[in-house]
């Protein structure tokens, strides 16, 4: 990432020019003076199947109106429900992809893995094969309220399916059982742990306030840490301690659904990025965490980069000096004077004006 002035052109949905001065004629021009420009932001953990009751939202409310060009729904739907989701998702302006829940019904109820008859490998594989342009990975939620008495078994089933399907896997962590070390012991390089900096007792910090040795070992062998902020899963002190021990997240995502978007503490991806900026992550490291790293993690070959021939997905944003009260998932409030604000974005060259959800609070 550099701070030079650049001009960029998009033609037929793809980036056709990146440089200092574009000589051609454009049908539409956007003067983004004073804004930063990056490849389109990718939020790799959201919930945007509007027909659900528990965790739902509308793709464009999380996506293009917030400067986010691609959202990945993380396990709202499973083998039985993902086709209905796809029908709605393809109508959105935002690019929408899905991680398929290994439980056939997805998150209709909180305990989708309490009854393992809902996990059928043959049906799952058939659906993955049928919808390989939409399903970019798998999701398994490994916490007390989800798994019932099944212990680590659902994760073992997810790992087996992952190997057969040759797709990346996102693992949600939270309250025990299972114990966090049991989960981390099953994980390989490339597996994505979401809710990595949650403030729960089954989180990554031990009683001594330091990152647990097994979590550090998993990180060092290539397990990826994803924020997945959510209503309950981001804690300033945990994120700060990890940062101080050089355990930085790989990807920044929100776990947005309608309630934590409208009422906080999540609001949007820009606000989540602002929190990490406040922790100490430099902007130059943060932007790849919502562009090239999630693109590489979830297999988007033409996204996450500003290159001729890449998808014409661009995000424009500003770094503004204003006092913002940031709230984590445990109600801790910290004040920053530097906020990342979305200005606009393009999806395949179509331009959208963007704003932060927090602006709604001022009105
Ligand atoms: Zn989630």
How would the blueprint of this fold be written?
Blueprint: E1 7-11, E2 14-19, E3 36-39, E4 41-46, H1 59-62, E5 68-78, H2 82-89, E6 95-101, H3 121-130, E7 135-142, H4 144-147, H5 153-165, E8 169-173, H6 180-185, E9 192-194, H7 213-220, E10 224-226, H8 236-244, H9 258-262, H10 269-279, H11 283-286, H12 292-297, E11 314-320, E12 324-327, E13 333-336, E14 339-347, E15 350-353, H13 359-362
Parallel strand pairs: 4-5, 5-6, 6-7, 7-8, 8-9, 9-10
Antiparallel strand pairs: 1-2, 3-11, 11-14, 12-13, 14-15
This protein binds zinc ion (ZN).
Zinc ion (ZN) binds near residues 47 and 230.
Keywords: Metal-binding, Zinc
GO molecular function: deacetylase activity; hydrolase activity, acting on carbon-nitrogen (but not peptide) bonds; hydrolase activity, acting on ester bonds; metal ion binding
InterPro entries: Deacetylase_Atu3266-like (IPR020043), EF_0837-like (IPR047601), Metal-dep_hydrolase_composite (IPR011059), Metal_Hydrolase (IPR032466), TatD-like (IPR001130)
């Amino acid at each position: 990432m550099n701070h030079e002035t650049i001009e960029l052109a998009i033609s037929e949905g793809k980036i056709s020019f990146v440089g200092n001065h574009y000589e051609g004629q454009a049908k539409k021009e956007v003067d983004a003076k004073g804004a930063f420009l990056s490849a389109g932001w990718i939020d790799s953990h959201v919930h945007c199947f509007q027909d659900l009751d528990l965790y739902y939202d509308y793709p464009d409310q999380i996506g293009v109106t917030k400067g986010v060009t691609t959202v990945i729904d993380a396990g709202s739907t499973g083998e039985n429900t993902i086709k209905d989701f796809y029908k709605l998702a393809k109508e959105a302006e935002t690019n929408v992809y899905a991680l398929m829940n290994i439980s056939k019904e997805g998150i209709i109820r909180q305990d989708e893995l309490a009854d393992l008859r809902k996990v059928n490998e043959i049906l799952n594989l058939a659906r993955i094969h049928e919808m390989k342009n939409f399903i970019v990975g798998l999701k398994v939620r490994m916490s007390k309220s989800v798994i019932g008495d099944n212990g680590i078994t659902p994760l073992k089933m997810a790992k087996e399916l992952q190997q057969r399907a040759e797709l990346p896997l996102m693992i949600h962590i939270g309250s025990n059982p299972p114990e966090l070390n049991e989960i981390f012991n099953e994980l390989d390089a490339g597996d994505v742990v979401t809710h990595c900096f949650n403030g729960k007792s089954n989180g990554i910090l031990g009683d001594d306030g330091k990152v647990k040795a097994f979590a550090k070992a998993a990180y060092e062998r290539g397990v990826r840490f994803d924020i997945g902020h959510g209503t309950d899963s981001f804690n300033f002190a945990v994120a700060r301690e990890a940062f101080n021990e050089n355990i930085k997240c790989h990807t920044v995502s929100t776990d947005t659904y309608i309630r934590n978007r409208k009422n906080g503490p999540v609001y949007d991806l820009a606000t989540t990025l602002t929190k990490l900026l406040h922790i100490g992550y430099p902007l130059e490291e943060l932007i790849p965490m919502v562009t090239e790293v999630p693109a590489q993690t979830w297999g988007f070959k033409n996204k996450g980069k500003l290159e001729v021939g890449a998808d014409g997905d661009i995000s424009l944003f500003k770094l503004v000096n204003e006092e913002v009260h940031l709230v984590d998932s445990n109600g801790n409030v910290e004040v920053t004077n530097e906020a990342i604000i979305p200005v606009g974005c393009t999806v395949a060259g179509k331009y959208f004006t963007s704003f932060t959800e927090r602006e709604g609070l001022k009105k």
